[in-house]
Structure formats: structure tokens, C-alpha cells
Design a protein that fits this description.
The protein is of the alpha/beta class. It has 2 helices and 20 strands.
Length: 263
């Protein structure tokens, strides 16, 4: 049998073989290291980022209501006040209680220019309510604490409760100045007398939203923050304070020497 010489291995072929062997060895070492450590690489999902609910022209208003607006003097309101389809005669509010005076109190029977502006603001408020309804709550914030928020610190997120939400004692909202809080309440919302909401870490009232399927009551001496958009009526009891806005989509708004500071 005739023997033949083995093929000559050139330097190029040798370099390629070495590279392949190193690659195989490296992959095997990585897999072996992961196996020994019991750690495997996983993709970490990005946290959900909520955006503020868009309220459009309604941002110019501290109060928007459907039926009546009534104030036991003297309340203090630093934004516009609007009533539609209610008329000016259904607004029992002294102009001195509104920072901008009589010109910042609007009703459905005003002149055309004001009525168009008010109509658009009401439409934006209704759209904001509908948007809030459609936002999916975070899984870990559905029915949180059984609605007992007293003494709790609430991080950014979308919360939901299937019944009434009654806050009996002080609580805190904590986060950055870009964080957003959306609270969805399927029935009524009540804040007990003298309850204080504290904002920490840069949290802003303009990024807090309370969507209420029923009515809302802020108890005497309570201090709250955020935009309250209620399906029904809203009452702010004696000396209550809200840094935010109060909207009653299908109801009235009553104030008793209350203060609303528009954020």
C-alpha cells in the first residue's frame, strides 16, 4: 500500500484552528461557571412608568361641576370656577372668594366666548375621567391594605379599590417630582376630619389623581392633594384644604370655608 504525505498545515489554517478551540473552550467555561454558581442570565423587565392624566383646558379650573356650586363663606379658590349645564344662578359663591374675581366664575348662560371655553374645559375633564377608568391598575396595588391607608407610605403606581375608600388617619405619598399616582375608587371616597396627606421626596400634587366612581367628602380640617374627578358630588367640609382641583362630573360641589390651591 502506498503511503501519502499528510496535508501541509499552513500558518493561516493553524491560526483558524486555534481560534475555534479557544472559542469552544471559552463557551464551555462560561456555561461551567454559570452551572457552578447556580446563576443564569435573565432579562429584567423595565418598571412601569405612568404618565400624568391629561386634563387639557380643565387645568385652568379649581372647580368644575354639573349641577350646583355652593360655598359657606369665606372659602378661598385660586383657579377658575365653572358650572355646566348649570346656570349662574346656581352658583352661590361670592366673587371675593375666587382669586380672579367674578371674571373667573363661568356658567352655561354666559356670553358665547366664555361658554365655548367652559364647554371645552368640561369636555377635557370628561375625557380625563374616561382615561383614568381605562388605566390598568398594578397587580400589587389592587385592594391594597384593604383600603386602610392610615400610616402608610404610598409609592408611585396605579391603585384600585372595589368599594368605598375611607382614610381615617394621616398617610404619605412618596416619590420623585416626575412620579405619578393614580387612585381608582369604584364607589365613594371619604377623608376623615383632620387627616393630613404628606408629600415626600419631591412628589407633586399635579401628578396625583383620584378617580371616584361615586362621590367624595373631605372632612373638616383635612389636608389633601391631587386632582379629584368624581362621577357624583364632592363636599369639602369646614376648613379643609386641597392642593389640586375638584371636579364633579355629574353632581354638585359644596365648600364650607374651604381652600383650594391650584398646583
Amino acid at each position: 500500500m502506498k503511503l501519502t504525505k499528510p496535508p501541509k498545515i499552513t500558518s493561516a489554517i493553524a491560526s483558524s484552528l486555534v481560534a475555534i478551540l479557544l472559542l469552544i473552550n471559552g463557551c464551555g467555561k462560561k456555561a461551567s461557571d454559570e452551572k457552578r454558581s447556580g446563576v443564569s442570565k435573565i432579562e429584567i423587565p423595565h418598571p412601569r412608568v405612568l404618565k400624568p392624566i391629561k386634563i387639557g383646558l380643565a387645568e385652568n379650573f379649581s372647580i368644575l361641576a354639573y349641577a350646583n356650586i355652593y360655598s359657606i363663606p369665606n372659602s378661598s379658590i385660586d383657579g377658575k370656577v365653572g358650572l355646566l349645564p348649570g346656570t349662574r344662578g346656581q352658583i352661590i359663591l361670592d366673587p371675593i372668594e375666587v382669586k380672579g374675581g367674578a371674571q373667573d366664575i363661568l356658567a352655561s348662560d354666559d356670553e358665547a366666548t366664555s361658554t365655548i371655553f367652559l364647554n371645552n374645559a368640561i369636555a377635557d375633564m370628561v375625557t380625563a375621567y374616561k382615561e383614568a377608568v381605562t388605566i390598568t391598575p398594578d397587580n400589587d396595588k389592587i385592594g391594597l391594605y384593604g383600603g386602610e391607608l392610615s400610616g402608610k407610605i404610598l409609592a408611585t403606581g396605579c391603585y384600585k379599590w372595589s368599594g368605598d375608600l375611607v382614610i381615617k388617619n394621616d398617610f404619605t405619598i412618596e416619590g420623585s417630582d416626575t412620579d405619578v399616582w393614580i387612585f381608582k375608587i369604584s364607589a365613594n371616597f371619604k377623608v376623615a376630619s383632620d387627616v393630613h396627606l404628606t408629600l415626600r421626596g419631591g412628589a407633586k400634587a399635579q401628578n396625583i389623581f383620584w378617580q371616584v366612581a361615586g362621590g367624595a367628602v373631605l372632612g373638616s380640617g383635612s389636608v389633601m392633594a391631587g386632582t379629584i374627578i368624581a362621577q357624583q358630588s364632592v363636599e369639602m367640609k369646614n376648613q379643609s384644604l386641597l392642593t389640586g382641583r375638584v371636579f364633579a362630573k355629574n353632581g354638585y360641589i359644596n365648600l364650607d370655608q374651604a381652600t383650594i390651591n391650584k398646583p
